[in-house]
Hints:
Number of helices: 12
Distance between the termini: 72 Å
CATH architecture of the largest domain: 3-Layer(aba) Sandwich
Largest sheet: 6 strands, parallel
Strand order of the largest sheet: 2-1-3-4-5-11
Number of strands: 12
CATH superfamily of the largest domain: Response regulator
Structural class: alpha/beta
Strand content: 5-15%
Oligomer: single chain
CATH class of the largest domain: Alpha Beta
Radius of gyration: 25 Å
Number of domains: 3
Helix content: 40-55%
Order of helices and strands: HHHHEHEHEHEEHEHEHEHEEHEE
Amino acid sequence: MKNKITISDIAKELGIAPATVSRALSNHPEISASTKKKVKAVAERLDYMPNKIASSLRSGKTKLIGVLIPTAEHLFFGSVIHGISNLASQHGYDVLIYQSNESEEFEKKGIDTFIGARVDGILVSISKNTTNFSHFKSVKEKNIPIAFFDRTNDDLEISSVCIDDYLGAFMATESLIKSGYKRIAHISGPQHIKAFSERIRGYKAALEQYNILFDNNLIYNGDISIEAGRIGAAYFLNLENKPDAIFAVEDFTALGVLKELKERAIQAPNEFGVIGFCNDLFGEHITPSLSTVDQKTVQMGEEAFHLIYELISKKGEKTNHQKRILTPTLITRESSKRE
């Protein structure tokens, strides 16, 4: 079995001190460019692999970031992770991903896993079923840098990156009004999650702006799923005074609405308008294609990394929590384009 190459092996071959090799490999400014070049050439030839555990013990940093997502089923989170991992790699960080499966219990296990792995920082999108946030408070108390993305909670005073959910919902509802729909319903998400409470607030504001009376019968409390979209649409279509359009809290919910409409032979968009929120990949490939709000997922991931990197760099310093808010873009497709 081949012995693992160490810094001492490289030092012996070059006739220099192991400390010089270590500094050359970490690009220390006191080491000359020619020495760095020689050290790196020998390291590559001998197939040297750095011992990350030893390195982390010396530096106090593991160069690991934990990313906790609610689900891997939605392309949205994969796209955000793409933005995070791209920048992480450029800064010499690796990313550990843990899926909470929209469960508070699994979310807590994910946090424990990250703490056990001694990650330098944690990025979190909160599970829809989480109502006790003590595990996030515990991370703060342990002085581990933490930030939220997409699904946030302002009460915890934890830094965050999200889209302007209020503005996106306003734009979505307004686009339905401008397309000629008169009675617009909303299938919401769990209201203890700020993103979803902001979307219902934006929906109500658009109605008010266009002098449309808010009707509480036109709100269905869903759970961000295809099934919630189907059930919500069925609820509205069974009302005596039916709506003629639905703004769904996110794209999978909107997909459920379209499936229910198709089952009832109701044509979108001429008979009924539908718009979602997210701009998930499937939206442009279904029939009718889905109008939606683009959440700038890759940009969100990049901003999330910038934020956690900054918090890691300032660890130990007293800093105020930050809110970084991205501007959404309306994408109008077939599902809300009335002829």
